[in-house]
Write a structure and sequence with these properties.
167 residues, mainly beta, 2 helices, 10 strands
C-alpha cells in the first residue's frame, strides 16, 4: 500500500495567512483595555465598566475600544455619553484625538477631545475649554446608567479643581 500525497495549493494557506495578519494588526489583546490604560500611566476609570474588546496599533498609538452599546451616566453636575466605539491615540499620560465621548456642559453636548495627566490631575479638553480633576477620582470605573455609585440615587461627587478657557 502506497501513500499518495496530493500537492496542496497555495490558496489553501491563504485563510491562515489572513487570520495571522488580522490578529497581529490588532495588537496584543492579552491585556484588557484597562490594563493598557495603566501601561500608559492613565487611570482605569477613564473607561466605563463593560469594555468588550479593543484594538491597538502599538506603533502609532491609535486605538478603538468597543462597548456593548452606548453608555450614559452622571457624575456630580456632569452628564457623560460614551458611544459604542471610542477611538483616539494613546501615549504616555495622554489620550488625544478622541472620538465617541461627550460631556454635557450647561445645555450643550461637547466632544471630549483629549485627556492629559499632569502629575496628580487629569485635564479634560473639549477644544475651547478644559477642566482639571484629581486623578484619584478615576481610580475605579463608572457603570453605565449610574456612574460610580449605583447603590444610591445621589451618586458620588467628584472634586473639580478649576475650569479654564482657551478662548
Amino acid at each position: 500500500m502506497s501513500l499518495h500525497l496530493k500537492p496542496i495549493s497555495s490558496f489553501a494557506f491563504l485563510p491562515l495567512v489572513l487570520l495571522f495578519l488580522i490578529s497581529s494588526a490588532s495588537g496584543d489583546n492579552s491585556l484588557t483595555a484597562y490594563e493598557v490604560l495603566e501601561q500608559y500611566d492613565l487611570p482605569i476609570g477613564l473607561l466605563p465598566n463593560g469594555v468588550l474588546s479593543y484594538e491597538l496599533d502599538n506603533s502609532s498609538g491609535e486605538f478603538s475600544v468597543y462597548l456593548n452599546g452606548s453608555c450614559t451616566f452622571s457624575i456630580d453636575s456632569y452628564e457623560l455619553k460614551y458611544k459604542s466605539t471610542i477611538t483616539g491615540v494613546i501615549s504616555k499620560d495622554k489620550l488625544a484625538s478622541l472620538s465617541g465621548i461627550k460631556v454635557k456642559v450647561l445645555l450643550l453636548w461637547l466632544n471630549i477631545k483629549s485627556v492629559i495627566l499632569d502629575e496628580d490631575e487629569l485635564e479634560f479638553s473639549v477644544g475651547i475649554a478644559s477642566a482639571d480633576f484629581p486623578v484619584d477620582n478615576f481610580s475605579e470605573c463608572p457603570t453605565c446608567g449610574c456612574g460610580f455609585d449605583c447603590d444610591t440615587v445621589e451618586g458620588r461627587k467628584i472634586e473639580s479643581n478649576h475650569l479654564t478657557s482657551s478662548a
